[in-house]
């Protein structure tokens, strides 16, 4: 009981490992792809933000230049106005009052036309007066910008943008011009006080203006402060002292961007542009804002990773369970049998390996048993009846009575053959006896369970032959219904349990036992009509004869010429198309003999064409084409054989020449042996691979390789054993099983080829 519980806990260990391995295989590429996606998305977003910032900066620059140049133009026009020059240069007091009034009118007009101008004033040096649009005519000592005027008089700049203490307090920037223009005499001043906050908001929110040390900087600082009435002196000074601003001032480049610390010590992206008028435009975007824009990318990436991981886990669990299901059923069935032939193990793969080794051993024993088995006397009697060895009906009746065969019943013969079993590489041709043995056992087991039909099932010429017997008083329609039911039952069983698809030929019903041979021949004739796909796989001789058409039989010479022409031009696809038309036309005849003869004629024409292409006839005959054609029974087999073997060999032989073909064929076989040396390899199997007879392959192999086929197979297996001895920790027995030897045979063959034992070889090379 404890052992069963332990097994229940451990029996799915491989399934869980498979699921985890599959999940890891899914998660790793998903995570890597997500990381790559996140990285690319972040890079694109950063580039997008920088591009937008550059566009915004360019737009701000264009706006600012229009405003600044407009103010400078107004200042220049007013400075060159004759009235302005009269006021600055003329000392006539009577005229001055009139001029002052007229000039103040102009100042009011200029201020009202430009919303950014807060104050315009003119300083008159000879009488120390100030004309202001806000205060009118006032003495300099009483004017609130007295200190600013004093600082401007000390400057030698003809015109400049500047911020003085009083201007900063009022939230203004000043554009001042010394008058008269170009004169070195007494200095007058024409100044425009600009509302910095209004101008900044017009350009873009969070825009500030710095003028210091001959630098004019307009900066858009993202989310720096909420809109207020003034720009704080302390804040402007802190901004001006930023390393990023100093870098921009010192830079000789007209534009660029870089990362530096902002006024709060956090990382930020600085982007700038300079123009020829020594004005610099700067955009500052904190890295925190840029990172906040990536939140949706991170969220989307996490969601995608999580979704793909969950979906991958579900799919891998489902597919792993489906892939494991046959293994689980095999293990459960093996443990339920509890026959003790194979020791149960916790590791499923080792247990399955042991089961396969056991099955391989049993297969060999079964083949030996079938080979050594002899038919019973009753089977011999039935075989003699089928072969028509009896010349007198009385002798047949005597032998049937002697061996217990009822001669009073109505008899019918069924011939059952397995379809395409060698073409799909499930069995080798030499295993024909194993196939017929399995076929007969299933048919016999099902026949024993029939209520009405009785009879015998024997293996005969590689097929299963059933002789069914019914009471003579039954109507033939009832007999035929029972026969079809029996055929359907064993066909289903063979398809479900052995994956065999079968074709069944049915003869007529006869009341005399001696006529069984006639029914057998009719079943053989019916089975030949497998060549016609529309007739199905169950072929009753009477139905076939009703279906026969009485049409004129004519060999399609035109299609044959088209096939030969396509092959000579190496157009294999066109040859196959014409072969399909050839076959469709032949099927209309509904005559097996006519169709078979037509295919023989076509093959003969192809061989003649090969000879005309300078291919040696003896070499062509070595391929034994006519014998291969004789073994093809169905339309699919014939079509596939011509398309895949005959046409391919035609192009191969005519294009490369016999000697090259032989060398390439042997190279292909040698490569196949090296790559499949762990499998059972036979000369017949390899000969079929390149379309030649086994005897010719044996001679050709000896000629090209200097050793026979078996010696080369042994050398390949020994080479694989050497590799496993050097690279793995498997024991000698396991290595022997992998390359298809017993441990004893491996030691013997290894000693003969390497002159040492496998164990010594491992110690010498590890």
UniProtKB/TrEMBL annotation:
Transmembrane segments: 18-40, 295-315
UniProt entry tagged with the keyword Transmembrane helix: yes
InterPro entries per the UniProt record, alphabetical: CdaR_GGDEF, Homeodomain-like_sf, HTH_AraC, HTH_AraC-typ_CS
Pfam family, one: HTH_18
rRNA processing is among the record's keywords: no
PANTHER family: ARAC-FAMILY TRANSCRIPTIONAL REGULATOR, HTH-TYPE TRANSCRIPTIONAL REGULATOR EXSA
Protein name listed in UniProt: Helix-turn-helix domain-containing protein
């Amino acid at each position: 009981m404890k052992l069963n519980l332990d097994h229940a806990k451990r029996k799915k260990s491989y399934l869980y490992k498979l699921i985890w391995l599959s999940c890891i295989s899914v998660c790793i590429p998903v995570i890597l792809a997500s990381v790559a996606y996140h990285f690319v998305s972040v890079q694109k977003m950063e580039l997008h933000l920088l591009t937008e910032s550059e566009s915004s900066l360019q737009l701000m620059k264009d706006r600012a230049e229009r405003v600044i140049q407009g103010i400078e133009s107004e200042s220049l026009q007013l400075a060159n106005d004759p009235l302005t020059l009269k006021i600055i240069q003329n000392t006539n007091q009577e005229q001055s009052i009139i001029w002052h009034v007229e000039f103040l009118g102009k100042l009011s007009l200029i201020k009202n036309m430009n919303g950014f101008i807060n104050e315009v004033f003119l300083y008159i040096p000879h009488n120390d007066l100030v004309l202001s649009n806000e205060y009118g005519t006032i003495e300099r000592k009483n004017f609130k910008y007295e200190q600013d005027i004093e600082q401007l008089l000390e400057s030698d700049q003809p015109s400049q943008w500047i911020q003085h203490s009083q201007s900063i307090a009022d939230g203004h920037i000043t554009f001042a011009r010394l008058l008269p223009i170009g004169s070195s005499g007494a200095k007058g001043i024409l100044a425009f006080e600009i509302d910095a906050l209004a101008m900044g908001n017009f350009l873009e929110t969070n825009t500030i203006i710095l003028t210091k040390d001959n630098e004019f900087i307009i900066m858009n600082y993202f989310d720096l402060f909420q809109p207020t009435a003034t720009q704080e002196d302390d804040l402007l000074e802190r901004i001006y002292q930023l390393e990023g601003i100093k870098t921009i001032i010192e830079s000789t480049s007209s534009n660029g961007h870089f990362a530096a610390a902002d006024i709060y010590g956090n990382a930020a992206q600085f982007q700038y542009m300079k123009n020829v008028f020594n004005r610099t435009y700067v955009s500052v975007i904190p890295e925190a804002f840029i990172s906040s824009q990536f939140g949706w990318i991170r969220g989307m990436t996490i969601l995608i990773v999580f979704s793909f991981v969950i979906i991958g886990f579900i799919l891998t669990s489902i597919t792993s369970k489906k892939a494991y299901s046959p293994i689980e059923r095999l293990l459960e069935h093996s443990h339920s049998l509890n026959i003790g032939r194979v020791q149960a193990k916790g590791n499923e793969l080792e247990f399955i390996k042991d089961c396969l080794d056991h099955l391989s051993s049993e297969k060999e024993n079964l083949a030996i048993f079938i080979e050594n088995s002899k038919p019973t006397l009753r089977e011999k009697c039935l075989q003699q009846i089928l072969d028509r060895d009896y010349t007198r009906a009385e002798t047949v009746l005597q032998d049937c009575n002697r061996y217990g065969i009822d001669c009073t019943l109505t008899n019918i013969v069924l011939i059952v053959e397995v379809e395409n079993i060698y073409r799909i590489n499930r069995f080798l041709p030499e295993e024909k006896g194993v196939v017929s043995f399995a076929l007969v056992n299933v048919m016999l087991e099902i026949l024993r369970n029939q209520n009405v039909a009785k009879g015998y099932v024997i293996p005969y010429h590689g097929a299963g032959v059933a002789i069914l017997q019914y009471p003579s008083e039954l109507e033939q329609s009832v007999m035929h219904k029972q026969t079809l039911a029996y055929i359907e039952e064993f066909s289903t069983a063979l398809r479900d349990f052995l994956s065999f698809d079968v074709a069944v030929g049915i003869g007529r019903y006869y009341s005399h036992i001696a006529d069984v041979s006639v029914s057998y021949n009719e079943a053989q004739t019916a089975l030949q009509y497998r060549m016609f796909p529309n007739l199905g796989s169950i072929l009753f001789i009477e139905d076939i004869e009703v279906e026969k058409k009485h049409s004129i039989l004519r060999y399609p010479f035109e299609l044959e010429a088209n096939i030969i022409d396509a092959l000579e031009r190496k157009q294999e696809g066109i040859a196959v198309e014409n072969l399909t038309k050839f076959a469709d036309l032949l099927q209309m005849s509904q005559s097996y003999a006519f169709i078979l003869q037509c295919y023989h004629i076509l093959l003969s024409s192809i061989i003649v064409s090969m000879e005309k292409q300078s291919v040696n006839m003896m070499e062509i005959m070595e391929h034994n084409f006519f014998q291969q054609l004789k073994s093809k029974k169905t339309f699919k087999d014939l079509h596939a054989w011509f398309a895949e073997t005959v046409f391919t060999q035609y192009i191969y032989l005519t294009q490369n020449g016999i000697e090259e073909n032989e060398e390439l064929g042997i190279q292909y076989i040698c490569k196949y042996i090296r790559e499949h040396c762990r499998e059972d390899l036979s000369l017949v199997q390899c000969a079929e691979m390149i379309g030649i007879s086994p005897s010719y392959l044996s001679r050709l192999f000896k000629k090209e390789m200097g050793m026979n086929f078996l010696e080369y197979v042994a050398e390949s297996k020994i080479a694989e054993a050497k590799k496993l001895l050097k690279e793995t920790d498997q024991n000698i027995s396991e290595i022997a099983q992998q390359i298809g030897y017993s441990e004893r045979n491996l030691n013997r063959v290894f000693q003969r080829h390497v002159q040492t034992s496998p164990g010594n070889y491992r110690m010498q090379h590890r």
